[in-house]
Amino acid sequence: MQLDWRAILGPALTTAVALIAFFVDRHFVTVPNPAPLFVCIVALASSISGIASGMTSAAVAVIFSALFFLNHRVAPGYDAHDVARMALLALTACGTAVITGMLRQKWIDAFAAEQAHHATSSRLAAALDEVDIGIVLLGADTRAEFINRAFRDYFALPDEMAESRPPFIALMYHGRDTGAYELPED
Which of 9, 83, 174, 186 is the most exposed place for a label (fewest CB within 10 A)? Predict the structure, then answer.
Protein backbone atom coordinates (compact mmCIF):
# COMPACT_ATOMS: atom_id res chain seq x y z
CA MET A 1 0.00 0.00 0.00
CA GLN A 2 1.33 3.41 -0.92
CA LEU A 3 1.62 5.90 1.89
CA ASP A 4 0.19 8.93 0.21
CA TRP A 5 -2.91 10.99 0.84
CA ARG A 6 -5.12 8.52 -1.04
CA ALA A 7 -4.03 5.58 1.10
CA ILE A 8 -4.43 7.49 4.36
CA LEU A 9 -7.71 9.22 3.49
CA GLY A 10 -10.01 6.25 4.19
CA PRO A 11 -8.66 5.25 7.61
CA ALA A 12 -8.31 8.90 8.65
CA LEU A 13 -11.85 9.72 7.57
CA THR A 14 -13.20 6.64 9.36
CA THR A 15 -11.36 7.64 12.54
CA ALA A 16 -12.57 11.23 12.29
CA VAL A 17 -16.20 10.19 11.82
CA ALA A 18 -15.96 7.76 14.74
CA LEU A 19 -14.43 10.36 17.04
CA ILE A 20 -17.07 12.91 16.07
CA ALA A 21 -19.79 10.31 16.70
CA PHE A 22 -18.28 9.54 20.13
CA PHE A 23 -18.10 13.22 21.02
CA VAL A 24 -21.64 14.06 19.88
CA ASP A 25 -23.03 10.91 21.53
CA ARG A 26 -21.39 11.68 24.88
CA HIS A 27 -22.03 15.41 25.06
CA PHE A 28 -25.04 16.35 22.93
CA VAL A 29 -27.49 13.81 21.53
CA THR A 30 -27.64 10.05 21.08
CA VAL A 31 -26.07 9.11 17.77
CA PRO A 32 -27.57 6.26 15.73
CA ASN A 33 -25.41 3.42 14.48
CA PRO A 34 -22.70 4.95 12.23
CA ALA A 35 -22.11 1.63 10.40
CA PRO A 36 -23.76 2.70 7.08
CA LEU A 37 -21.53 5.76 7.00
CA PHE A 38 -18.51 3.57 7.72
CA VAL A 39 -19.38 1.31 4.77
CA CYS A 40 -19.60 4.36 2.49
CA ILE A 41 -16.19 5.52 3.70
CA VAL A 42 -14.76 2.03 3.06
CA ALA A 43 -16.13 2.18 -0.50
CA LEU A 44 -14.57 5.62 -0.97
CA ALA A 45 -11.21 4.43 0.38
CA SER A 46 -11.20 1.36 -1.88
CA SER A 47 -12.16 3.37 -4.94
CA ILE A 48 -9.46 5.96 -4.34
CA SER A 49 -6.56 3.81 -3.19
CA GLY A 50 -7.41 0.13 -3.55
CA ILE A 51 -8.24 -2.90 -1.45
CA ALA A 52 -5.55 -2.36 1.22
CA SER A 53 -6.83 1.08 2.18
CA GLY A 54 -10.42 -0.16 2.12
CA MET A 55 -9.61 -3.13 4.36
CA THR A 56 -7.76 -0.86 6.78
CA SER A 57 -10.78 1.43 6.89
CA ALA A 58 -13.02 -1.60 7.45
CA ALA A 59 -10.88 -2.74 10.38
CA VAL A 60 -10.97 0.76 11.90
CA ALA A 61 -14.75 0.86 11.41
CA VAL A 62 -15.26 -2.48 13.17
CA ILE A 63 -12.99 -1.50 16.07
CA PHE A 64 -14.73 1.84 16.58
CA SER A 65 -18.15 0.19 16.28
CA ALA A 66 -17.16 -2.27 18.99
CA LEU A 67 -16.09 0.63 21.21
CA PHE A 68 -19.23 2.59 20.32
CA PHE A 69 -21.58 -0.27 21.30
CA LEU A 70 -19.63 -1.14 24.46
CA ASN A 71 -21.18 1.63 26.56
CA HIS A 72 -24.52 1.98 24.81
CA ARG A 73 -26.34 -0.07 27.42
CA VAL A 74 -27.22 0.42 31.06
CA ALA A 75 -24.63 -2.22 31.96
CA PRO A 76 -21.41 -2.19 29.96
CA GLY A 77 -20.90 -5.12 27.62
CA TYR A 78 -22.26 -6.69 24.47
CA ASP A 79 -25.43 -8.62 23.86
CA ALA A 80 -26.25 -10.87 20.89
CA HIS A 81 -27.64 -7.95 18.85
CA ASP A 82 -24.43 -5.95 19.23
CA VAL A 83 -22.27 -8.91 18.21
CA ALA A 84 -24.55 -9.58 15.22
CA ARG A 85 -24.37 -5.92 14.13
CA MET A 86 -20.57 -5.91 14.42
CA ALA A 87 -20.29 -9.16 12.46
CA LEU A 88 -22.57 -7.79 9.79
CA LEU A 89 -20.54 -4.59 9.65
CA ALA A 90 -17.32 -6.61 9.33
CA LEU A 91 -18.73 -8.71 6.48
CA THR A 92 -20.28 -5.75 4.69
CA ALA A 93 -17.25 -3.49 5.06
CA CYS A 94 -14.79 -6.19 3.96
CA GLY A 95 -17.00 -7.17 1.03
CA THR A 96 -17.35 -3.55 0.02
CA ALA A 97 -13.59 -3.05 0.23
CA VAL A 98 -12.86 -6.11 -1.92
CA ILE A 99 -15.53 -5.48 -4.54
CA THR A 100 -14.79 -1.76 -4.88
CA GLY A 101 -11.04 -2.40 -4.92
CA MET A 102 -11.43 -5.02 -7.63
CA LEU A 103 -13.61 -2.68 -9.70
CA ARG A 104 -11.00 0.04 -9.27
CA GLN A 105 -8.25 -2.33 -10.46
CA LYS A 106 -10.33 -3.41 -13.43
CA TRP A 107 -10.95 0.22 -14.35
CA ILE A 108 -7.23 1.05 -14.06
CA ASP A 109 -6.30 -1.97 -16.22
CA ALA A 110 -8.89 -0.98 -18.83
CA PHE A 111 -7.58 2.59 -18.84
CA ALA A 112 -3.99 1.36 -19.31
CA ALA A 113 -5.07 -0.92 -22.15
CA GLU A 114 -6.93 1.97 -23.79
CA GLN A 115 -3.83 4.16 -23.53
CA ALA A 116 -1.68 1.41 -25.06
CA HIS A 117 -4.21 0.93 -27.86
CA HIS A 118 -4.31 4.68 -28.48
CA ALA A 119 -0.49 4.86 -28.62
CA THR A 120 -0.37 1.97 -31.11
CA SER A 121 -3.10 3.59 -33.19
CA SER A 122 -1.23 6.91 -33.21
CA ARG A 123 2.01 5.22 -34.33
CA LEU A 124 0.15 3.35 -37.09
CA ALA A 125 -1.54 6.56 -38.27
CA ALA A 126 1.82 8.37 -38.34
CA ALA A 127 3.36 5.53 -40.37
CA LEU A 128 0.47 5.41 -42.84
CA ASP A 129 0.68 9.18 -43.31
CA GLU A 130 4.21 8.71 -44.69
CA VAL A 131 3.07 6.34 -47.46
CA ASP A 132 2.77 7.86 -50.95
CA ILE A 133 -0.32 5.81 -51.84
CA GLY A 134 -3.74 7.08 -50.76
CA ILE A 135 -5.11 4.90 -47.96
CA VAL A 136 -8.58 4.91 -46.41
CA LEU A 137 -9.36 2.58 -43.51
CA LEU A 138 -13.07 1.86 -43.25
CA GLY A 139 -15.04 0.73 -40.21
CA ALA A 140 -17.75 -1.94 -40.21
CA ASP A 141 -20.32 0.70 -41.18
CA THR A 142 -18.20 1.74 -44.24
CA ARG A 143 -17.29 5.06 -42.67
CA ALA A 144 -13.72 6.30 -42.95
CA GLU A 145 -11.86 5.63 -39.70
CA PHE A 146 -8.57 6.96 -41.10
CA ILE A 147 -7.60 8.83 -44.24
CA ASN A 148 -3.89 9.36 -44.87
CA ARG A 149 -2.26 12.53 -46.13
CA ALA A 150 -1.65 11.20 -49.69
CA PHE A 151 -5.38 10.48 -50.19
CA ARG A 152 -6.31 13.90 -48.81
CA ASP A 153 -3.87 15.63 -51.15
CA TYR A 154 -4.78 13.61 -54.26
CA PHE A 155 -8.54 14.06 -53.82
CA ALA A 156 -8.29 17.63 -52.44
CA LEU A 157 -10.12 16.45 -49.34
CA PRO A 158 -10.29 19.11 -46.61
CA ASP A 159 -9.13 18.02 -43.15
CA GLU A 160 -12.52 18.90 -41.64
CA MET A 161 -14.28 16.47 -43.97
CA ALA A 162 -11.65 13.76 -43.43
CA GLU A 163 -11.93 14.04 -39.64
CA SER A 164 -15.75 13.86 -39.72
CA ARG A 165 -15.64 10.12 -40.61
CA PRO A 166 -17.47 10.42 -43.93
CA PRO A 167 -19.07 7.34 -45.53
CA PHE A 168 -17.12 5.76 -48.39
CA ILE A 169 -19.75 6.82 -50.93
CA ALA A 170 -19.30 10.46 -49.87
CA LEU A 171 -15.57 10.12 -50.58
CA MET A 172 -16.35 8.77 -54.05
CA TYR A 173 -18.75 11.62 -54.78
CA HIS A 174 -16.18 14.12 -53.51
CA GLY A 175 -13.57 12.62 -55.86
CA ARG A 176 -16.04 12.91 -58.76
CA ASP A 177 -16.87 16.52 -57.88
CA THR A 178 -13.22 17.54 -57.67
CA GLY A 179 -12.41 15.83 -61.00
CA ALA A 180 -9.93 13.41 -59.46
CA TYR A 181 -11.08 10.57 -61.78
CA GLU A 182 -10.83 12.53 -65.02
CA LEU A 183 -8.54 11.14 -67.67
CA PRO A 184 -6.94 13.08 -70.53
CA GLU A 185 -8.98 12.85 -73.78
CA ASP A 186 -6.15 11.23 -75.75
Answer: 186
